[in-house]
Amino acid sequence: MNLSAFENPGKFWRGNIHTHSNLSDGLLDPGEVCRRYKNQGYDFISVTDHFIGLYDYPLTDTSGFRDENFTTLIGAELHSGALENGELWHILAVGLPTDFKPSNSPHFLPIRDQESGPEIALRAVNAGAFVAIAHPHWSGLSFKDALSISAAHAVEVYNHGCAVGADRADGFHTLDLLLSNNRRLNLIATDDAHFTEPDHFGGWLMVKSEKNEPEYLLKALKSGAFYSSQGPELKDISISEKKINIHTSAVSSVILQGQGSAATAHHGESITKISLSLSRFLKGGWVRVTAVDRANKKAWSNPILLKKE
Fold first, then answer.
1. Residue of 51, 110, 135, 266 with fewest CB within 10 Å of its CB?
2. Cα(105)–Cα(113) distance, rounded to whole angstroms?
3. Between the CA of residue 277 and those of 167, 203, 216, 265, what are the distances in Å?
4. Which of 184, 202, 229 is the endpoint of a domain?
5. Looking at residue 309, what is its pLDDT?
């Protein structure tokens, strides 16, 4: 975890990496999903249909919908093994090879002789994918479940579909506990759009890359060169003399969170630049930034490692 989103060369590209089509349980065909995101101003998308036997293990090929202004990443929502609550794991994997081997997952219920969730996550990482723990609140993920995942890049902390359809949108508690247990993970916001309800265009990534091309975007995702948003922009974040310097679009609040109860906030009108002390966060060794605008839309930085006192 570093400041690569603001230090790396290139520009920010807007994308959604959790979406479903009618090749699994979504309403629209893949081409129409891509068209709608492109028309909404997105630069890239990953259609991540449910990788189970019920849908013939789809790895939805969206490469035909790429053009000079819009691209796609091949991905899937992987399922295998039981959570502590008896339900099936949901693992988001973006940048999968088209020959990724299916698990023994015939439907949305765990069965015997399946890979575990941690095993299929590791296999996806080894295959070159960017991997995230999907919607932990919605899934009822326990902390023991979360700790069992040894191979992942991020936690899905905001899922717009889960917000709209279940009021179980977030994964911040899971992420913060993992961070405080020395698990170095980033965070993502997504739509999980099915287009069967107003579950689209609500949460996205801003990925810093020199080119809007799959291999460049995937490299940036793996390195943490991105932030997540519902609207506000994070223009720059830097560390100097035990202070964090934050540059945003106009917002009404800037909040820092760290280990345990460590948090500090600054409120005002049309804040665009602010420096805040890191003294309260040095013992825990990490901090993350939330920016909130007047419409209560938020943007989130990835966690930033600090030198512990």
1. 266
2. 10
3. 34, 29, 34, 11
4. 229
5. 62
The length of the chain, given as a count of residues: 309
State the Cα–Cα distance between residues 285 and 4, nearest whole angstrom.
18
Q: Within this chain, do residues 109 and 202 fall inside the same structural domain, yes or no?
A: yes
> Looking at residue 1, what is its pLDDT?
44
| Number of domain units in the chain | 2
Boundaries of domain holding 64: 4-229
pTM (two decimals): 0.96
pLDDT digits (tens, 9 = 90+) for 6-39: 999 999 999 999 999 999 999 999 999 999 999 9
Whether 308 shows a pLDDT value over 90: the answer reads no
Q: What is the enclosing helix (H) or strand (E) of 35?
A: helix 30-39
CB atoms within 10 A of CB 272: 14
User: Considering 208, 229, 250, which residue would you say is the last residue of a domain?
Assistant: 229
DSSP for 96-159 reads --TTPPP-S--SSS--TTPPPHHHHHHHHHHTT-EEEE--HHHHT--HHHHHH--S-SEEEEEE
Same domain, 285 and 300: yes
Q: What is the DSSP string of 225-275?
A: -EEEESS--EEEEEEETTEEEEEEEEEEEEEEEESTT-EEEEEEEEEEEEE
DSSP string for 142-186? -HHHHHH--S-SEEEEEEHHHHHHHS--B-HHHHHHHHHTT---E
Element (H, E) at 94: strand 91-94
Q: At a CB cut-off of 8 Å and minimum separation 6, what does 80 contact? A: 88, 89, 91, 103, 104, 105, 110, 114, 115, 116, 117, 119, 120
Residues 6+ apart with CB under 8 A from 138: 159, 162, 166, 168, 169
CA distances from 203 to 45, 72, 147, 161, 266 (A): 12, 17, 25, 9, 23
- Kindly report, residue by residue over 74-102, the tens digit of the pLDDT: 999 999 999 999 999 999 999 999 999 99
